[in-house]
Amino acid sequence: MLAIVCPGQGSQSPGFLSPWLERPGVQEQLASLSEAAGIDLLAHGTTSDAETIKDTAVAQPLIVAAGLITAQALLGDDATAALVPGKMLVAGHSVGEITAAALTGTLSNADAMAFVRERANRMADAAAATPTGMAAVVGGDPDEVLAAIAAAGLTPANMNSKGQTVAAGTLEQIAALVAAPPAKARVIALQVAGAFHTHHMAPAVSALQALAPSLTTHTPAVTLLSNYDGTAVVSGEAALESLIAQVSRPVRWDLCMETMGAMGVTGLIELAPAGTLTGLAKRGIPGITTVAVKTPDDLQAAREMLAAHLSPEAGTL
């Protein structure tokens, strides 16, 4: 079983899309996605600085667009049609779950960009209402980490693995956790501009619920895992409901990885801007082989992994 995974906010870095412009059609694809997103993704992916692309309204559409471009480069013009049920599954972390929905055909690319545009803008509005942020807690005893997060008044917004939990809340609460970290743990501030996946984002949920009737959903082409509990969503409608609710509830990537392990995932390809989820998988899924598709130079290794998992000898689940 092969997993294709899509990263979330904070994975972007200045200029990360520049190498992809060498591929035919990418500039045109970016122009189309930019129109749907209402921002210049070409500029933000190539020349904008770190502070600019940290902005939620920029980062989220940029990350989804990057994943769609990478998927097309890897799988062909009709990426969804290249997915093979029983041999492949797809999952995305936080905003990457929108990329995953588009890749599986659950949402069209246009609807995915319309959704992420509204999500990003409304989450940015919610973040501007109160200065909030997120910080990764790496290491430490899991129970002690959760206790320290609670003591600081924070929410465990991302449960990424047994050794990494992301706390979210006001900047004062983040500062309190930094000042009193759990034993044997490090607290690292993240390059995000709000307390995502917490009650602070409730206004964005309402806005997305209002948008939902204008979107068309389809049953995922292959297994699509939900950030809510790591299980497969059963319909397009369920996937959209999960995407909306995810904005203000914790991301359980740890449970997604548990499901991957239980389903026999032996290979994992992370779409651009790649690196974070492959790192988590190496520590969280024993024996897994990974490819992080950061630049076009990584496509060959990804194609080789894809071919190995789709060969007749690989079998089906």
Automatic annotation (TrEMBL):
E.C. numbers: 2.3.1.39
Top EC class for this record: transferase
Domain Malonyl-CoA:ACP transacylase (MAT): 5-298
InterPro entries: Ac_transferase_dom_sf, Acyl_transferase_dom, Acyl_Trfase/lysoPLipase, Mal-CoA-ACP_Trans/PKS_FabD, Malonyl_transacylase_ACP-bd
Keyword check for Acyltransferase: yes
Matches recorded under SMART domains: PKS_AT (SM00827)
UniProt entry keywords in alphabetical sequence: Acyltransferase, Transferase
Pfam families associated with the record: Acyl_transf_1
GO biological process, one term: fatty acid biosynthetic process
Gene3D superfamilies assigned to the protein according to its UniProt record, in alphabetical order: Malonyl-CoA ACP transacylase, ACP-binding (3.30.70.250), Malonyl-Coenzyme A Acyl Carrier Protein, domain 2 (3.40.366.10)
Catalysis: reaction(s): holo-[ACP] + malonyl-CoA = malonyl-[ACP] + CoA
Example of a GO cellular component annotation carried by this entry: cytosol
GO molecular-function term, one example from the UniProt record: [acyl-carrier-protein] S-malonyltransferase activity
Domain of life: Bacteria
Protein name listed in UniProt: [acyl-carrier-protein] S-malonyltransferase
The species this protein was found in: Arthrobacter alpinus
